[in-house]
Task: structure prediction
Amino acid sequence: MHTGSPPVRTPLAVLALVAAVAALLLGGAGPASAHSGLTGSDPADGSVLASAPPYVTLTFTETVGLSEDSVRVLSPDNERVNPRPAQHADGKGNTGRVQLADGLAQGTYTVAWRVVSADGHPISGAFTFSVGKPSETAAEVPDTAAGDTAAGRLHGVFRHVAYSGLALLVGAAAFVLVCLPRAGALRPVRRLLAAGWAGHAVWDFVHHRTGRVVPRAWSEWCCVVDLCGAAALFAWS
Result:
C-alpha cells in the first residue's frame, strides 16, 4: 500500500513562522537598545533667572512615559510649586513639561524627575535653578532607586514574560525546522509555538496600553500579528 510522502506544508509553515519572528525582532530591536537620558532642560541646570519661568521643560534622548509625579518642582522650603502633572511639550514624546505657580519667590528651586525610558526602565534625576539669586534649600529628593517602584517591578514582570515567550517561540520553531521537521505535525509542539507567540503578544499589549516603549501604532500592529499567529496555531492544533 502506497502511503506517499509526508506533507511538506509543516516545514514550510515553520519556515514562514521563523521568518515572521525574525522580522519582528529586527524591527523591534532598536527601541530597546539603551536607556533614555536627559539631554537638556529649560531652565538649564544651575541657571540663575531674573524672573520666575512659567514652565519647566525636560528633553530626553527618546520617547519617555510620564506619570502624575514624573516631574516635581520644589521651592526652597520644600513645597511643591507645580500644581499640575507633567505633559509632553507640544505633543513631543521625548519631552516633559510642567506649569509653575504664579508669584514664585526668590531662591533656589529643585526639579526632581522620574520617567519611564523607551526600553521600559524607570530613570530619574534632579537639578536646580534659581530665581533672582541662589539660596539655601530644604528640598528633599527621594533616594529610592529608579527601578524600585511598583510600576517598575510590574513592567519587569511583563518584560520577562515577553522574553520567555519569544525565546520559547524561536527555540521551538528552530528545533522543528532544523532538528526534527516531522515534529511540526505534533499537537503539543504546535501548542508550544502558540504559547510562545501569545506570551509575546502580552508584551505588545502592554506597550499599546501605555505607549511608553514604542509608538502605539507599531505596538498595535505587532499585537495583532502575534494574536493572529497564536490563534492560528491554537486552531491548527
In short: Strands lie at 38-42, 48-49, 55-60, 71-74, 95-99, 107-116, 122-131.
